[in-house]
Amino acid sequence: MPNDLIFTPTAPHHKEWLRQRALPCGGMNCDISIVNLCCWQFRYQTEIALWKNHVIVRFVSSGQRAYIVLFDKNDISSAIGRLLDECQAKGEPLRLMGVCEDMLPLLENEFPGRFSFDYDRDYCDYIYRRDALATLVGKKLQPKRNFVNRFLKNYPDYIFRPLEKEDIPACMTLDDQWTHRNASDSTDDDELAERQAIAYVFRHWDELEACGGVLYVGHQLVAFTYGSPINERVFDVCVEKANPFYEGAYAMINKSFAASLPDHYELLNREEDLGLEGLRKAKLSYHPEILLKKYIVTEK
Asked: What are the CA-CA distances from residue 219 to residues 170, 215, 272 (Å)?
């Protein structure tokens, strides 16, 4: 078989492939944003290929090779068949990750009984209505409005604005401080990896066309956030860091950034909780519109 499936390491210029395919395939999961695909390459050995009308991502997770596919839904069988051939040649089962529920009946219809379908609650994406986070209207979000109001009362000289390149050194300093405050023996590797991922994004800020916001009190940076589009309707918020000594800073950066994004982003994906109890509680407290199940599809 001709070697027509050619993978190369993910790079910022691959955002054009994602723009062409993310909207038609309807994907909303955070794994397909250009920032995530690039900044975690060092950890997951992420590569990408364009095959026919499909974008195929190959990476290593827990020591096993896996794939994410932005499918042309009119031609699923050929993409899966090509990947089955590739995996058979390598002597390993095909494993797809980040597969959303709407794809499961299509895969089962094309390949009846060929795959098992499993999902882990820890890796569900939290997706919110952007206007809900931007306004915090309603009884359910009253506690968040309270935090914002306390921030406004205590720090009337605050400034929120888009994150620019000149803000990056201050953002890195805040991230260093956040890491030292939250460091623990059990999570050192994860914290180091996140710092590396953030550093990558800032080094390639213009190439990635990332979008972020910063929150200052006087001349002191107290919070920053950034992300990148998944498609024309869904924006992925990749990182949000704040100085906890400024009460309400997290709620304020969250609300301000949501309000700053263009109206065509109807939904914000704020990614997974990874099974961390505190993070899960925080994400649920904003009342997600969608808890997006992402399945692992494995060849039997």
From this structure: 10, 10, 32
Domains identified in the chain, total number: 2
d(CA 81, CA 51): 12
CATH number at residue 55: 3.40.630.30
Q: What is the mean pLDDT of each run of 10 residues along the chain (300 residues)?
A: 78 92 82 96 95 94 94 89 94 96 93 96 97 97 97 97 97 89 63 91 97 97 97 96 96 98 97 95 97 96
- Distance (Å, whole) CA 264 – CA 253: 20
Q: Is residue 297 part of a domain?
A: no
Same domain, 26 and 54: yes
Q: Please indicate, yes or no, whether residues 107 and 145 belong to a single structural domain of this protein.
A: no
Length of the chain: 300
What are the phi and psi torsion angles at 132 (to 5°)? -65, -45
